[in-house]
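Figure-free illustration: sequence to structure, shown twice.
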Amino acid sequence: MTEWDTIARCQQRLRETTPLPADQHLMLRVVKIQEEAGEVADAFLGMIGGTPRKGVCKTKQDLQAEVCDVIATAMVALYELAGPDAERIFAAHIDGWGTPEGAR
């Protein structure tokens, strides 16, 4: 079983349990990416003590977990958008990063 198999199962479960109409599922997945990105920022600030009121309250492991949540959430959104082609689309996109023209 691959990560994409897990993402497909997760996307299917979310489709079955989300109370919104099917045509709004993609919107929800895209907005969820931003929510998770905010949690990355919060974890980073907590790790470096960037919020004086809270001080250092997060660990590197907390930050790593939040980054993983962003990645997985984005994968679910891509699967919602592209279905089983998501893995191929993502691989082709990432492969382009290895070229001088594709460097980000």
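We now fold a second protein in the same way, so the two outputs can be compared directly.
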Amino acid sequence: MADNMNLNEMLRRMAMAGLGAVTLTVEKSKELADMLFKKGEKAARESELTPDQVRDQVAEGLKNLADKIHTGIKKAEFEDLLARMDDLTDEERDILRERLDNPVPRAESCAQQPDDAPADHEAACGEGEEDSDSDKTDDSAGE
């Protein structure tokens, strides 16, 4: 019976410690947010930038970060492609060589893809987006 009480007390203490950790995290995150806000205000005042200039700089920084992330993803995809090339059959290598030697312009490549093309093809070719005016013109031309 004493072991059962010790187990219950230990579980209760663990639950309270977890609750305390969550509470402390919330409190500290609020303090950190306030501190960052004050630092940001001070930096903006000291740099004599207008709020619009600060906003523009933040937007530019976010755009640069997004570009770096996008570049990193593209690099990872390319490295994955290179790794998968080791598994290509001779026939697949010949097809790849032909495609590299005679690239198809993007618009033609998108038009030549079969209906069961992979999802990444749709994203690369802009499928799934709203029709542009040129697409509507092409559709009406065949009628």
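Summary for the second example: Helices lie at 2-47, 51-85, 90-101, 106-112, 119-124, 133-141.
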